[in-house]
């Protein structure tokens, strides 16, 4: 069930193993969040304000790799939570990455728990994989967000 993205069968050992890279990734992400706000204004503006573009992007990739790796190690490929939730938080709550980043984690956890509950109850006594439920809801939302961004 891990391949389909599921929370069934999780144990504390798995969570503890993933906690270290997740915390390091979160620390790196919070460290570069102010620079990401400036980078969102464009490369020229960021360079003019003294942001090291290469370093910021490399640290961003490191944070992404650690956070995604930890999440996938625990729950499998439940991708749409990580793709959609940060965009929704930034659109509905704040554009400031320094605030959106810490808010996206609990909102993502809530969305994942709600998707898991729905996957377990909608077709009871059968269970859908949580990844299937997040894809059913997340794919249309992601397409909507992408269509608005690329207009």
Automatic annotation (TrEMBL):
InterPro entries, sorted: ABC_BtuC-like, ABC_transptr_permease_BtuC
Alphabetical GO biological process terms: siderophore-iron import into cell
Transmembrane segments: 18-38, 58-85, 97-119, 131-150
Compartments where located: Cell membrane
Keyword Transmembrane helix: yes
Gene Ontology annotations for the cellular component aspect, listed alphabetically: plasma membrane
UniProt superkingdom: Bacteria
Keywords recorded for this protein, A-Z: Cell membrane, Membrane, Transmembrane, Transmembrane helix, Transport
Keyword Coiled coil: no
Membrane topology, from the record: Multi-pass membrane protein
Molecular function in Gene Ontology: transmembrane transporter activity
Family: Belongs to the binding-protein-dependent transport system permease family. FecCD subfamily.
Name assigned to this protein: Heme ABC transporter
UniProt lineage: Bacteria, Pseudomonadati, Pseudomonadota, Gammaproteobacteria, Enterobacterales
């Amino acid at each position: 069930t891990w391949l389909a993205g599921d929370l069934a069968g999780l144990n504390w050992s798995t969570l503890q193993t993933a906690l270290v890279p997740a915390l390091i990734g979160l620390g790196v992400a919070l460290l570069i969040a102010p620079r990401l706000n400036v980078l969102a204004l464009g490369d020229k503006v960021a360079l003019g304000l003294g942001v090291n573009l290469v370093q910021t992007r490399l640290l961003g990739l490191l944070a992404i790799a650690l956070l995604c790796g930890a999440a996938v190690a625990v729950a499998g490929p439940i991708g749409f939570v990580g793709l959609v939730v940060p965009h929704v938080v930034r659109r509905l709550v704040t554009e400031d990455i320094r605030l959106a980043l810490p808010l996206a984690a609990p909102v993502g956890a809530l969305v994942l728990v709600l998707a898991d509950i729905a996957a377990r109850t909608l077709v009871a006594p059968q269970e859908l994989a949580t990844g299937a439920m997040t894809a059913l809801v997340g794919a249309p939302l992601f397409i909507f967000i992408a269509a608005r961004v690329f207009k």
